[in-house]
Design brief:
9 strands; 3-stranded antiparallel beta sheet; 3 helices; mainly beta; 154 residues; Jelly Rolls
């Protein structure tokens, strides 16, 4: 599992300020400019075993689609019963449920979200997400965090 995190670290290092997927050869990346487009099929999935140094419960696959100067966008695939540990971040996250159904705890409130629903995890607020069924979630983070550090173990 550490080798998967290493792959993400190497890809991030190759991309500079943009999260460049392996094998991508966009003209902007070749010119040293920030990445403008990410092709879904070219972005590798990463198994998430930890969030903020705390172990995951279940199987979560992360696809780091694109990193900009002010935000990043991730696609998350949760198996039923997968739950992130309670954690906080210094960044803000917006989660959009594409398919499935998830439960999110934000501070002391609990919400069940389905397709099309959106939630905000403010910076510094304890939160988690649990998949009630197989689910796909798109997450936007600002400012963009260091993904390998976010999903690495302590």
């Amino acid at each position: 599992m550490r080798s998967l995190v290493l792959v993400v670290t190497l890809c991030a290092a190759c991309a500079g300020s943009a999260f460049q997927p392996a094998g991508a050869t966009t003209s902007s990346a070749l010119a040293g400019r920030p990445q403008l487009v990410a092709r879904h099929a070219e972005v590798a999935d990463v198994l998430v075993s930890f969030i903020e140094g705390k172990p995951m419960h279940g199987k979560l696959m992360l696809k780091p689609l694109l990193r900009g100067e002010q935000m990043s966008i991730l696609e998350l695939h949760y198996q039923p019963g997968t739950k992130a540990p309670l954690h906080t971040h210094t960044h803000e996250s917006l989660i959009y449920v594409v398919s499935g159904r998830v439960k999110t705890w934000i501070g002391d409130e609990v919400f069940v979200l389905g397709p099309g629903d959106v939630a905000r995890h403010p910076p510094g607020v304890l939160h988690t997400v649990e998949a009630l069924v197989e689910s796909t979630v798109v997450e936007i983070k600002s400012p963009p965090p260091d993904i390998p550090a976010l999903i690495g173990s302590k």
